[in-house]
Design brief:
Layout (H helix, E strand, L loop, with lengths): L1 H19 L2 E4 L18 E5 L7 E7 L10 H13 L3 E6 L14 H15 L6 E11 L1 H9 L23 E5 L12 H8 L5 H6 L13 E6 L8 H12 L4 E6 L18 H11 L4
Parallel strand pairs: 3-4, 3-5, 5-6, 6-7, 7-8
Antiparallel strand pairs: 1-2, 2-4
Helix pairs in contact: 3-4
Length: about 290
């Protein structure tokens, strides 16, 4: 029993150390493009939770949810990063810019630019951080799931002519993980808050279609893990379903888990012993994909 509590203490200390020793990286150290102010919300960052391994390890960039109006950066960010570290996976929590209801805040493409820039930074420093460049994924919850799926469907191979080595990097993830994601912006089941904070009150219909990510899946979209709940009262499960069907149309490897019960925005769902098993299913999938 004494050894059990010692092990538990060491594990707890390691988690606290990983959080306190994390590295915060400004996405734009020379100034944020299109910045509206110089406050904390105007400075997008990556918080790196690095693992110490002999072999190059996988990495995941985490996009917390919050309806593009705020960031649930603890239970959909830092807690998730610590869990990935336990698996031997490097984790990076993205603090991206957010919008305002009246349209005075940030809008697309600022959020996507932040996600692309964050992913390029990880690729650019993969050797320095001992990251396997072929095992780099993105994870997103809710509106962060929309941002993650936008990264996986609106990507490029980098600009080889750029003088910035970061901008020369591809922003295409090798895999995606989507938790109760916002996907479509032009359907009856659209999360209207996310759409308004991202695009404003009267967006261009073509842009709405362009960012309805089930319409943007291609043969290059990465393998994807999805989980959602059937009675999600905020982001209907149809979002997950249409994205999964789009993946199947292009024969993209995918796994989806739809739980009957569970509210929106649960993170690890620590109070639900059934829904709280989704991390185990994700771990299985990561092993099936050869990421672990």
């Amino acid at each position: 029993m004494r050894y059990f509590f010692l092990h538990l203490l060491l594990l707890t200390l390691s988690l606290h150390m990983s959080a306190s020793d994390s590295l915060v990286i400004k996405l734009y150290p020379n100034g944020t493009p299109n910045a509206l102010d110089t406050k904390d919300n105007d400075i997008p960052t990556l918080t790196a939770f690095l693992v110490n391994t002999d072999e190059a390890a996988p990495a995941v960039m985490i996009c917390p949810g919050g309806g593009y109006a705020m960031l649930a950066i603890d239970h959909e960010g830092f807690q998730i990063a610590n869990w990935f570290n336990e698996l031997g996976i490097n984790a990076f929590v993205l603090k991206y810019r957010i919008g305002q209801w009246e349209g005075k805040g940030y809008r697309h493409p600022d959020m996507l630019n932040d996600a692309q820039r964050g992913f390029r930074i990880i690729r650019n420093r993969a050797k320095e951080w001992n990251i396997n460049p072929n095992k780099m994924g993105v994870l997103g919850f809710s509106a962060g799931g929309h941002l993650a799926s936008t990264l996986g469907t609106h990507f490029d191979n980098g600009n080889p002519k750029s003088t910035d080595p970061i901008e020369q990097q591809s922003c295409l993830p090798n895999f995606m993980i989507l938790g109760y994601p916002v996907i479509s912006l032009n359907q009856a089941f659209t999360h209207q808050g996310s759409r308004r904070y991202l695009l404003g009150a009267t967006p261009d219909p073509e842009l709405v279609h362009f960012l309805s990510n089930e319409t943007q899946v291609s043969a290059l979209t990465p393998p994807t893990f999805i989980f959602h709940t059937d009675n999600d009262g905020s982001v209907p499960v149809e979002n997950a379903l249409v994205f999964y069907m789009a993946l199947k149309k292009f024969k993209i490897p995918a796994e989806m888990h739809i739980y009957e019960k569970g509210k929106h925005g649960v993170g690890f769902a620590p109070d639900d012993k059934i829904l709280g098993t989704w991390p185990d299913r994700l771990k299985d999938w990561l092993q099936v994909r050869g990421i672990l």
